Task: inverse folding
């Protein structure tokens, strides 16, 4: 969730294919047009505005990932298109930077992440992304008994589904 130009998607797809050849399916979801105005009701969140992350396109990412057959690129606001992904999830990479889409992804983890699965939350430790840390805090306040959290020194957090 949150693809931008596809670098992390390529890394994850390649690594997962090495670990479980022929058994993975990666859904790469992004607006490919920056933050949606509906997700920034005040027009800004930390350093983020609707003008950020527009230097990409779904077509460019599809081309970049053309040799990753296990990847489906899905264009749209995460809250609008991920309902079509009706599978149990084992790993979620959330790199969406702001509160509303991060919270949506974490709620998706509550509903669909397998026990033993992991959510990698980018930007958790960065002051420029206060909504990300807030979303993780809200999730843990409501469902902390189902997740263990590890804050990494690189700014990410890992949420491990324990039950």
Result:
């Amino acid at each position: 969730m949150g693809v931008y130009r596809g670098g992390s998607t390529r890394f994850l797809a390649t690594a997962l294919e090495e670990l479980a050849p022929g058994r993975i399916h990666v859904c790469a979801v992004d607006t490919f047009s920056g933050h949606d105005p509906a997700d920034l009701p005040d027009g800004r969140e930390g350093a983020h505005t609707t003008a950020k992350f527009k230097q990409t396109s779904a077509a460019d990412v599809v081309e970049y990932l053309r040799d990753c057959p296990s990847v489906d690129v899905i264009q749209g606001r995460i809250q609008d298109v991920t309902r079509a992904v009706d599978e149990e999830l084992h790993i979620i990479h959330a790199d969406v930077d702001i509160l509303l889409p991060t919270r949506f992804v974490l709620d998706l983890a509550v509903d669909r992440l397998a026990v033993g699965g992991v959510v990698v939350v980018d930007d958790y430790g960065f002051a420029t992304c206060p909504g990300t840390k807030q979303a993780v805090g809200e999730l843990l306040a409501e469902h902390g008994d189902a997740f263990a959290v590890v804050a990494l020194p690189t700014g990410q957090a890992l949420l491990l589904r324990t039950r």
